[in-house]
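COURSE: Structural Biology Practicum
ASSIGNMENT: Worksheet 4, Part C
STUDENT ID: 0417
INSTRUCTIONS: Below are two proteins. For each, the amino acid sequence is given first, followed by its structure token string. Answer the questions at the end about the second protein only.

PROTEIN I
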Amino acid sequence: MNSKIEDLRLVTVVSQLASGPHVAIVGEASSQATSDLRRNGFHIEFFRDVGQVRHGGARTFVVLRPDLMDGFWHVAAEADLVVVLSPDQTLVDRAEASLRSCGFRTHPRQFKYCGYSQDEREWPLFVAQRRPSAEGGILSQPLERSTAALQLLSFLGGFSRPGDRLLIVGDDVDVQDVMRTSTSCSAILSDGADGPVDFVLFQSNASIEEAVAQEAAAAAARLTPGGRFLAVFPLPGTGERVPDVLAGIRSVGLTLEKVFVQGLSPRCLHDVTSVERPAGDWCAIVAATDPVISNGTVRFQDTIYPSADPTENLLAFGRDYGNPWLMRSFFGMSVRTENREVRLDVARRLEAASARTDADRGSAICVRGYDVLSTGSHAERTAFITAAEHYLAGVPENPHALRWQVSIAFLCGLLHQEIGELDAAVRMYDRVVDMPWIRFSPTLGTKPAEAAYRAGLILERAGDLEGARGFLEERGKGGRSGNE
């Protein structure tokens, strides 16, 4: 091994998954990887081939030469975890088949380390654990199908949010195990559990649209605002039944976010949200409850940022928003919906329904404004700047409304600069620097800092060195209100 990336992958996999401090390595690892593993507390033994392996307490085996695995099976019973890493995909595939025949299965965290499909630049990786699959579970299916199911569920686990209460419909222990290791949910619940939930997974081996609609309706009644319903089912023929499944989901009030199809031969995954009749072997649908129509019976609880907030403002979503659930599904950058049309629809409805200077409306204006910056025409950008001024001219109702005023003013500066109105851009950036952003949180200081920097560059390029120096000095101070 001579790749720093592969060294890191090897050290990470072993450090996170090894069942004990003794690790047997078949083949040669780099001195850096060996040193890192020993620094992490592992006792490493090297063997030229599997036939030489002595048990010696090792229950974790790293195989860097899968061509030497023919003699492995005499020690297979002693192993809890086997990591196979090699540049030869054929050898890794052969090792995978052999390990499965000895009672191993793909580790549920396999695709945490190599993504949905292994990049051609990466060494193929296989992580196996000794644990029998549940009888009838998805991982007890034939190799190609079970690996594909594991890949798909691991990928879909990324649609959960930190701290979610996840309800799995059905009693497939394999599904529960995969989701437990591929999500950061606070609880994995089974049928019969009470109370509101944030994420519902329905996996069916039959593509019956009525069943999907029925489960979607049950999920809609329990999901928190913006909570997600995920349905996974086989896709027959040319996908002619998918429109009916989607109609059933929409009929119970859920909003469609994403549709994916997975092919098995070759194994692939495609986003087909805009395709009417997708073709493939499995279909996965991600839908969500409407975050604007807040469920008044569900008390907001921030599970994404549960730690204490020393500023008393930064995480005060429940205090400053009429609908604090918007943070989870609408404007929280790492957790919001990825569907642009859904975001814009929510933004339009919020702008129409919210008060002039409240935080909810500010979030809607900002989300819509960055879309205009990305895709809008000159006329659309000019119209947005004019409309945004009404929000900027008002007195903010609370610290989060102030946060949005600072962000929107900075955004207007970007828009002026993008359409070539450089004098107006400098004036808007100057306005950002003058805002009392520190009253919200020191973290908001990035906006006046960049505003001062951008204004300084514009003036420097225009030959106004004195004006540029003034702005760049303000950047170093974090803006004029930074010392309030």
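PROTEIN II
(use this one for the questions)
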Amino acid sequence: MEHVRGSNFRVLNRGAATAAGVVFLDEGRPALFGWPDEPVTLAGGSSHLLSMQGAGGKRMPVQLLVTWEGQEEPVPLQVPPRTD
């Protein structure tokens, strides 16, 4: 994941294989979390925008848990600090 600008981040598939069924678990999500309700498919080398920000006492997380097809055990994805 990398910070784009403001509350926008980019979730990257740095591998060559497609990651199908990418889903973020509810655990640790900030108050405002913009990711599709349906699972997302990321082709190798592609990305998808994610918007998020803390509010109402829920801070920005340092990591989020994500799964995809073939990876049922949640994997921690580090949330980078904002650069602006």
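ANSWER KEY EXCERPT:
Q1: The first strand starts at residue 2 and ends at 5.
Q2: The chain has one domain: 2-78.
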